[in-house]
Amino acid sequence: MNWISNYVRPKINSLFSRREVPENLWTKCDECGTMLFHRELRQNLNVCGNCGHHMWISPRARFEALFDNGTFSEVEVPMPVQDPLQFRDQKRYADRLRGAQKASGEKEAMLVVEGEIGRTPIVAAAQDFSFMAGSMGMYVGNAIIAAAERAVQTGRPLVLFSAAGGARMQEGILSLMQMPRTTVAVDMVKEAGLPYIVVLTHPTTGGVTASYAMLGDVQIAEPGALICFAGPRVIEQTIREKLPEGFQRAEYLLDHGMLDRVTHRSEQRSELITLTRMMMGMPPAVAGELPPPANGPDAPQTSVAEVAEAMLGGEASTSGGQSS
Amino acid sequence: MTHYLEFEKSLAEIEGKAEELRAMAAKSEGMDVEKEAKALDKKAATMLKDLYGDLTPWRKCQVARHPERPHCLDYIEALFTEYTPLAGDRNFADDHAVMGGLARLEDRPVMVIGHEKGNNTSSRIERNFGMARPEGYRKAIRLMDMADRFGLPVVTLVDTPGAYPGKGAEERGQSEAIARSTQKCLSLGVPSVSVIIGEGGSGGAVAFATANRVAMLEHSVYSVISPEGCASILWKDAEKMREAAEALRLTAQDLHKLGVIDRIIPEPLGGAQRDTDGTIAKVGTEIGKLLKQLDGKSRDQLIADRRKKYLQMGSKGLAN
Predict the structure, then answer these.
(1) For testing the chain B interface, which of A184, A196, A259 should be mutated: the one with the most B CBs within 10 Å?
(2) Is there a contact between A145 and B311 if contact means CB atoms under 8 Å apart?
(3) Which domain holds residue A162?
(4) How far apart are CA A188 and CA A194, in angstroms?
(5) β-bridge mates for residue A120, sequence order
(6) Whole-structure pTM value
(7) Which residue, A160, A211, A296, B211, has fewest beta-carbon neighbours within 10 Å?
(8) Fold of B62-319
(9) What ipTM goes with this model?
(10) Of the partner residues B170, B222, B230, the one whose CB lies closest to the CB of residue A229
(11) Residue A200 Cα to chain centre, angstroms
């Protein structure tokens, strides 16, 4: 044994072995424990191929799969006052916020976009559970208002994917005030006679469930999603008894009349197309592969708006005519 | 017997001594203790002033939850005439944590709705400590709807630790009931005034407190989560409620600065429980004043004003 075999070789080995097997190649399903290959998992929209467990998916990945050719454009959300209460627990809220922004590469816990699904123009918003548990603060409120305003402005349906641990405590009463604020937004969409569809994803709880996430014209949930006002632990502590299996899960809520449908992630796109087109009085969507839009995927925003206008202006037959 | 809060212990001692002295003197003739008793009274008064002059947020939470603080029922009995309670959600049950009905406020018919906590063990259990179930919110929706159709103003009195976290409540759609109640508050074409008289606990409070005008009693609190709950989540230690209460900015004074509420109604020295009649009368006067501010506004204007108020809320943070 010498210095080379004791020190240099292990060092070299460790360098090489690290490069050979990147850590994120395999993901373990947190339900059944199956190791899932990353490419396959992405293709399955982060649904376990073995047990069908729906795992977290980023709003961007979700939208790429949802919109025609994966193209959509972001709707700008007005930035609120950051850290309005100068909140501090064991850590400063401002620091937590910066940390979450750095880790996710996103501004905040909600992404608002517009685009077409099956040639049906929509506005969509998705909450990001990985960003401070998707919690609802001033920004999320602003995002929903911006989404509603955009939907009304362009005459498009609003589809919202919810996911949150509840209100953002670090914004105190102002987070609570997002309940009435977002309800005003929902009412604006409804008054304009436009559909508002909610897709509840795992988990949707607290003040979020008790406001915009429960006010949809159609309420869809992802399989197995926890949907509740008070979490199971709080309830167990209050009533001091074990809760039944599947309590507060999507299927349980469906059974109790709180949802319209529980839909697998891979089928949501076609279901949303079908629903929005019927609710908007449009002809059925064209089945099969769609030709790329006339201006190509990198077309400027105006072209999408034009298409939308054309479709809403009674020239809906053009969308039917583009089949074959 | 007066109920003293934890931070009022030294006050309790002095007031107790004065009371004892007077009781002794009353029993034995020729004993004059009035001078000593008066001195103790004076000491107690100074102490009360010191204690309540600058209540910390956590102490305010305790005052807001004081068992002898006037509750919804006390206000309704004292301020309204011809109160006719209306019950049930026409679906499942009547929730006793929520009371409401038609009543007159200075002869003007209104719809009054509020959370009732109860004032002794049996009534507290009957009222579920003011924690409403979906039926309570659905009853409120029904009553608000009725008020809207008959052009009657809606007055809500908010005093709840929060919506009830129970199995049945969840199964029957607690979140949906709260969401619809808030939505109903926002759609009213009649004037709405809300007063937070004790605890404004999270979503369970918002469902009633979304109004054209919102007032708070001086020592009441209104928060997204209880200080204990916040402490156990963010500090991982429920004993850190003092810090949490501080950070949450749940006092009437902070909420007024943030533009969340319109008015603070002063309480007597030592809190509402020290002069319930006086407190109730003041709340009545304020409700009258706030309703007057809304007189003459059209349906559309009332709805539009309310919406605008909430859409703009919080845009300036504490810099308001």
Answers:
(1) A184
(2) yes
(3) 56-280
(4) 9
(5) A117
(6) 0.87
(7) A296
(8) 2-enoyl-CoA Hydratase; Chain A, domain 1 (3.90.226)
(9) 0.92
(10) B170
(11) 9
